[in-house]
From TrEMBL:
The lineage of its organism: Bacteria, Bacillati, Actinomycetota, Actinomycetes, Kitasatosporales. This is Acyl-CoA thioesterase II. Pfam families: 4HBT_3, Acyl_CoA_thio. Transmembrane segments: none annotated. Residues 153-282 form the Acyl-CoA thioesterase 2 C-terminal domain. Belongs to the C/M/P thioester hydrolase family. Residues 33-109 form the Acyl-CoA thioesterase-like N-terminal HotDog domain. InterPro entries: Acyl-CoA_hotdog, Acyl_CoA_thio, HotDog_dom_sf, TesB_ACOT8-like_N, TesB_C. Keywords: Hydrolase.
Length: 296
């Protein structure tokens, strides 16, 4: 398959090897560690497949414990914590080469009537008139580097920044720790709501920590920090499709002690708040002679 959206759906299609045990692929890519959004998305698939499918997920809370190794399968063990009248709870442990690399707790809730209120979506331009990420890089560099072009061909999401990217230290001066992007899958994802939820979980980890970096360094180009997701929480408020445009607004209220906290809000084109996200990440200055470690 050549369509990155189809590859994403395939990546989220786990193999069931026992009643509550699943195996997921991990692409052999030129990365130091497995992308955290992939592990979170696959873990949520595993949790969802042990429910009756009638209750959509309403929240997840996860910890990234060890870096996963690209190219090595990941096993997901699901524990059925509770099946109540309105809520279903699952705990998932992700294991790679005999070691726990990630754990997740997910809660599923039957839809029911209630109050309706939310903060408004920010007033931003729509995605159609904004440049693609590749166009931004091409405009800045005059060409599209082959390494970036390869990444772009594998990318399952169309990403368009609401504000022009900052590329120089001068442009970074006075920048607030905020970012916003329009996103959607580059192709259809089918009609299974769980697939759309897990695909958005995948996408939610792609750039949330960028809000921490905005005042410090350009978002694209050489990095001055070793970054890693530490934990991740999501609350799903309304149904959605991940192959339709959504606005991902991000901000970082604080960064200190080698860690940065970021919050995200995801809206649809109609301005409905779909998902709330919070993540903390590790930020350590890179040193040329310093090697990577297996532990956070």
């Amino acid at each position: 398959m050549t369509n990155p959206a189809e590859r994403l759906v395939d990546l989220l299609d786990l193999e069931r090897i026992e009643l509550d045990i699943f195996r997921g692929r991990s692409p052999d890519e030129s990365l130091q560690r497995v992308f955290g959004g992939q592990v979170a998305g696959q873990a949520l698939v595993a949790a969802g497949r042990t429910t009756d499918g009638q209750r959509p997920v309403h929240s997840l809370h996860a910890y990234f414990l060890r870096p996963g190794r690209p190219g090595v399968p990941i096993v997901y063990q699901v524990e059925r914590i509770r099946d109540g009248r309105s809520f279903t709870t699952r705990r998932v442990i992700a294991i790679q080469q005999g070691r726990t690399i990630f754990n997740l707790t997910a809660s599923f809730h039957s839809a029911e009537p209630g109050i309706e209120q939310q903060l408004p979506m920010p007033d931003v331009p729509g995605p159609e008139g904004l440049p693609t990420l590749a166009d931004e890089v091409r405009t800045h560099l005059g060409t599209l580097p082959e390494a970036f072009a390869r990444m772009e061909r594998r990318q399952p999401f169309d990403i368009r920044y609401v504000e022009r990217l900052r590329w120089t230290d001068e442009e970074l001066k006075g920048a607030e720790p905020r970012s916003a992007v329009w996103m959607r899958a580059v192709g259809p994802l089918g009609d299974d709501p769980l697939v759309h939820t897990c695909a958005l979980t995948y996408a939610s980890d792609m750039m949330l920590l960028d809000a921490v970096r905005v005042p410090v360094e350009p978002l694209w180009g050489p990095r001055g920090f070793d970054m890693a997701s530490l934990d991740h929480a999501m609350w799903f408020h309304r149904p959605f499709r991940t192959d339709e445009w959504f606005l991902y607004e991000q901000e970082s209220p604080v960064a200190t002690g080698g860690r940065g906290l970021a919050r995200g809000r995801i809206y649809d084109r109609a301005g409905r708040l779909l998902v709330s996200v919070v993540q903390e990440g590790l930020f350590r200055p890179l040193r040329p002679a310093e090697g990577t470690t297996d532990e956070g």
